Task: inverse folding
C-alpha cells in the first residue's frame, strides 16, 4: 500500500460504524483528499487538520493522522497519534486508560474474532515500534511484551519484532 492509499484508506468502515458515529461526508472527503495530496505535504496537513478539527475523536481521523505522520517520517507525531488510537479504542472497549493495565483476553480467539481488540493490538504494536525508533527502547519493549501477553497466538508477530530489537542490542554490544 502506498502512502497515498494509506492516508485515504480510513480503515474498516464496518468497525468504525459499529463503534463510532458515522464519519461525516465532509470529513471523509477531507481524508480522501489528504491521501491524494500526500506529496503536497502542506495541503495534506491542512486537510488533516480540518478533518481533525471537525471530528477529533473519530477513529478514521486518528488512523489517517497516524498513517500520514508515519509515512511522512514524523515519528514522534506518529507515536502521539498511535497513543490517541490506543486511548480511543480503550474507551470504546472498556479497557483501562493505561495500556500497561490491560489484561489478556478471557479467550485466546478474541484477538482473531474481535475487530476492536485487534485494532487495539495494532495500535499497541505501532506505539511500541515507534518508541523503539525514537530511542525509548525499554518502553517500546515493554509495549511489545504487553502485545505478546494480549496476543498469545502471536497473530501480530510482536514476539518476532521484540526478538529483532533484542538481537540488535546484543549485536551492538559485541
Result:
Amino acid at each position: 500500500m502506498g502512502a497515498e492509499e494509506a492516508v485515504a484508506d480510513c480503515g474498516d468502515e464496518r468497525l468504525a460504524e459499529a463503534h463510532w458515529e458515522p464519519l461525516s461526508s465532509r470529513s471523509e472527503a477531507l481524508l480522501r483528499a489528504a491521501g491524494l495530496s500526500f506529496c503536497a505535504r502542506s495541503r495534506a496537513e491542512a486537510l488533516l487538520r480540518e478533518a481533525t478539527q471537525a471530528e477529533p475523536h473519530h477513529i478514521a481521523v486518528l488512523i489517517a493522522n497516524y498513517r500520514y505522520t508515519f509515512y511522512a517520517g514524523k515519528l514522534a507525531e506518529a507515536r502521539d497519534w498511535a497513543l490517541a488510537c490506543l486511548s480511543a479504542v480503550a474507551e470504546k472497549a472498556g479497557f483501562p486508560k493505561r495500556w500497561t493495565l490491560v489484561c489478556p483476553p478471557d479467550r485466546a480467539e478474541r484477538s482473531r474474532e474481535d475487530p476492536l481488540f485487534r485494532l487495539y493490538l495494532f495500535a499497541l504494536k505501532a506505539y511500541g515500534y515507534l518508541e523503539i525508533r525514537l530511542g525509548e527502547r525499554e518502553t517500546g519493549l515493554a509495549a511489545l511484551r504487553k502485545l505478546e501477553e494480549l496476543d498469545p497466538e502471536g497473530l501480530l508477530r510482536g514476539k518476532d519484532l521484540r526478538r529483532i530489537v533484542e538481537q540488535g542490542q546484543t549485536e551492538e554490544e559485541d
